[in-house]
Amino acid sequence: MKYLKKAARTAETDQSDVHAAVTQMLAAIEAGGEEAACHYARELDRWDGDIVVSHEARKAAAALVPEKLKADIRFAHDNVRRFAEAQRATATDIAVEILPGLTLGQKQIPVSAAGCYVPGGRYSHVASAIMTITTAKVAGVSHIAACSPPRAGVGIPPAILYTMDLCGADVILNMGGVQGVAAIANGLFGVKKADILVGPGNQYVAEAKRILFGQVGIDMVAGPTDSMVVADATADPEFVASDLVGQAEHGWNSPVWLVTSDEILAKRVMARVPELIEGLPVPNRDSARAAWADFAEVILCDDAEEMAAVADDYAPEHLHVQASDLDWWLQRLRAYGSLFLGEETTVAFGDKTSGPNHVLPTSRAARYTGGLSVHKFLKTVTWQRATRAAARPLAEATARISRLEGMEGHARTADIRLAKFFPGEVFELTPASDEA
User: What pTM was computed for the model?
Assistant: First the structure.
């Protein structure tokens, strides 16, 4: 492979260090509770109104949302809900008899409380409310709290608030950033302490989730969004260029990558992208221009297999294949957050309406994890039950292995069961000498 365009900077190494600031804020809110959280809301959100959104405020927001927009939101919500329900059906309780009399099983238990962060700064992220709250609801989470940055004098924008309510948020907080995340993690303002925090956010929100991990679960630590298009000679260069620009507008440090086996296509795309960027409104244009200049790459490969290998190495958050033989690509590719096959779909569909979740692993994390799904809200726990007859071989092997490991207390819990269940019998409960 060779680079026709090489990134001057990388999202991983160019992020600001916000650890100290976030650590200080989290400590202050843990110690000062609601008063400290309200202080940060006044200082950072410029919000001095009600923190908990009332039922009346929810109804008022709904009245402000145009019916056509409501229909679009309901359309997206229905698709996400139906896909999440299909995912939930794959997470089943099981019971299997491994040995005669030994039954093992697993149960899928939803977490009790989830916190959903919905970004609302530069853009009104209606889709993030759908993706997080709906998925938690389908998973069976009994208490869902959501928060989003309020706008001065307004609160959470009506469209976001309508969506949060539609999707089933039990409590909604007019609070963004670290203070919103901390409020939910600490169970402030009537929120039940979260078992898990989910949702995208800026670097401060991402750092807060990273620091809180362990105290609570999280979906993932997310960096700047990234996207890759894999294209061969059959691809439409206008589609490819448009799809790259559409993802570059996320932010100045959002990488976009084109991997192709056709140099003519690559050069046409590289010529067209700057033109499409200049047609965007501000601030989208500035973000896309910076992302393309500093973080974008165009990689020329010999064939489909080399393109697939490059894609697996980059492990992009979004991977869009615009090439022939889509079934081959579906079977071959191994590392991505979400896969888009063919020009008839696009990453924007997944970001907004089609159904699979848009909260996805970034910064090559797709090598080891997938995105947000109902499974993130479920605990797969196991159980076992045995008859006395089945306990016999288990106890014998357990006692010998435990003694081999030097764990005499473990061994004796097996010994006493053999003594009670099979009185008068003699068992060899020490490991063979050549194993010691």
Answer: 0.93
